[in-house]
């Protein structure tokens, strides 16, 4: 029995595989041992924009960019000859229009020819660039966090404005690769004060910008000059200053407090610089941290001052008076020198306070405090002992020297005060207690009691009197 095969049409295998080759998802070509192309598919021709006759007979190397040609000769060819195969070699193809196409090449030596598969790596290259950019952002972020952590530690350890400024300048100079710089304090005075860094930056401290974003002085608005062109655009003065100090770029970042600018961080660069957003943000972040630390030091200093000074008059309070008096007694005893204290009470103050009101009374006490501070010798200390009583510590002062100070006290208090009405007068009763060398030093309390008793003796004798006792 004979079984007849069904009449099935056979595909043209040769045409099918030829079509598959020419329209494959990758470029395919074949070269001889010298790298001359003898076969190429349509995909490669489409990607390159070249005609078949422009490719066949040409060395594969000559279709690559200059950089890829160098890599082809030094890495691709040696590896292919030694191992007979290369995988995922990144090269760049020069298209007919001159543009570049990133490609990945797989090649294998088969007999006397080399079979090459070419893949378009445009998307992969874009992904790798995005990955690299993300990695760089992460590295910058990590570096920024590390810098700010170091700054936080250093600023927390700072105990003075100067030590804080030194730490700020060192960290900022290293992190931002500055040639030099300065930290300048502008608080409470029209003349900026250098806390740390280079004095030669002084001509920049008071500049004002001319662009809308830089309209204020350096210590109120951040100023950025990246090159001499920026400097010239701002003003010829800025450009001349940079030339004179041999710098080409600078930044000035304000240190802001709750009541305005405290100072500024000035960084100098010997070559022109391009500051990206991350760099400028680091400037501001360091300045913010330093400003907070400066605020902490200010608050700490103010609390210490308040603990030792009378809030109304600003003079030393009892705590500071006792501290100064203890030191004065110790020095007088150890060095064998005289010392005196002057205790005074204001005559007529109660009538002023009751008759004109506490506001006027407070003003009078402030005026008296200022006048007392103005008649002291260098090294003397005056403080408000309480109410309308004041005490002056006079080191290295015998009875005669203390009497001269007491007479100036009487005279200055008797001067008219505009805030008082004509029917009110102010004077002082003064007691002086002197310690003479050669005698055992008295206790602090004994010295104060003696001066207080002397003051009451003066008060009993009439207004504006001075009584002296020796211990």
Automatic annotation (TrEMBL):
Domain PAS stretches: 13-57
Gene3D superfamilies in the cross-refs: 3.30.450.40, 3.30.70.270, PAS domain
InterPro entries on file: Biofilm_reg_signaling (IPR052155), GAF (IPR003018), GAF-like_dom_sf (IPR029016), GGDEF_dom (IPR000160), Nucleotide_cyclase (IPR029787), PAS (IPR000014), PAS-like_dom_sf (IPR035965), Rev_trsase/Diguanyl_cyclase (IPR043128)
Top-level taxon: Bacteria
Pfam families, A to Z: GAF_3, GGDEF, PAS_9
PROSITE patterns for this protein: GGDEF, PAS
Domain GGDEF: 337-471
Protein name, as recorded: PAS domain S-box-containing protein/diguanylate cyclase (GGDEF) domain-containing protein
Originating species: Salinibacterium xinjiangense
């Amino acid at each position: 029995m004979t079984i007849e095969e069904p009449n099935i049409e056979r595909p043209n295998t040769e045409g099918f595989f030829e079509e598959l080759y020419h329209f494959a998802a990758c470029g395919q070509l074949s070269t001889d041992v010298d790298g001359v192309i003898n076969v190429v598919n349509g995909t490669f021709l489409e990607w390159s924009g070249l005609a078949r006759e422009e490719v066949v007979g040409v060395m594969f190397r000559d279709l690559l960019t200059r950089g890829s040609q160098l890599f082809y000769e030094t890495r691709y060819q040696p590896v292919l000859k030694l191992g007979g195969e290369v995988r995922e070699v990144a090269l760049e193809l020069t298209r007919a229009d001159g543009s570049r196409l990133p490609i990945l090449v797989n090649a294998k030596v088969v007999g006397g020819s080399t079979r090459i598969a070419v893949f378009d790596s445009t998307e992969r290259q874009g992904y790798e660039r995005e990955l690299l950019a993300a990695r760089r952002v992460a590295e910058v972020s990590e570096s920024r966090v590390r810098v700010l952590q170091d700054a936080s530690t250093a600023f927390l350890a700072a105990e003075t404005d100067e030590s804080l400024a030194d730490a700020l300048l060192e960290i900022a100079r290293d992190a931002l690769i500055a040639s030099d710089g300065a930290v300048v304090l502008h608080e409470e005075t029209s003349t900026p004060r250098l806390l740390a860094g280079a004095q030669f930056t002084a001509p920049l401290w008071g500049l004002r910008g001319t662009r809308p974003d830089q309209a204020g002085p350096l210590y109120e608005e951040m100023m950025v000059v990246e090159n001499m062109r920026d400097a010239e655009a701002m003003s010829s003065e800025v450009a001349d200053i940079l030339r004179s100090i041999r710098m080409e770029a600078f930044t000035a970042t304000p240190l802001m407090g709750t009541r305005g600018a405290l100072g500024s961080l000035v960084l100098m660069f010997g070559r022109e610089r391009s500051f990206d957003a991350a760099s400028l943000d680091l400037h501001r972040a360091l300045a913010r941290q330093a400003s907070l630390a400066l605020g902490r030091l200010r608050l700490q200093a103010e609390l210490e001052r308040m603990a030792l000074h009378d809030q109304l008059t600003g003079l030393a309070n009892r705590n500071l008076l006792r501290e100064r008096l203890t030191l004065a007694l110790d020095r007088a005893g150890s060095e064998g020198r005289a010392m005196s204290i002057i205790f005074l009470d204001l005559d007529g103050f109660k009538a002023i306070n009751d008759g004109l009101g506490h506001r006027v009374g407070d003003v009078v006490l402030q005026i008296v405090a200022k006048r007392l501070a103005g008649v002291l010798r260098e090294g003397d200390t005056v403080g408000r002992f309480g109410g309308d009583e004041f005490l002056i510590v006079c080191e290295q002062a015998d009875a005669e020297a203390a009497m001269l100070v007491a007479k100036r006290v009487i005279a200055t208090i008797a001067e008219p005060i505009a805030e008082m009405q004509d029917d009110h007068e102010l004077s002082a009763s003064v007691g002086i207690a002197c310690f003479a060398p050669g005698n055992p030093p008295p206790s602090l309390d004994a010295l104060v009691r003696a001066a207080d008793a002397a003051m009451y003796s003066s008060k009993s004798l009439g207004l504006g009197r001075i009584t002296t006792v020796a211990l």
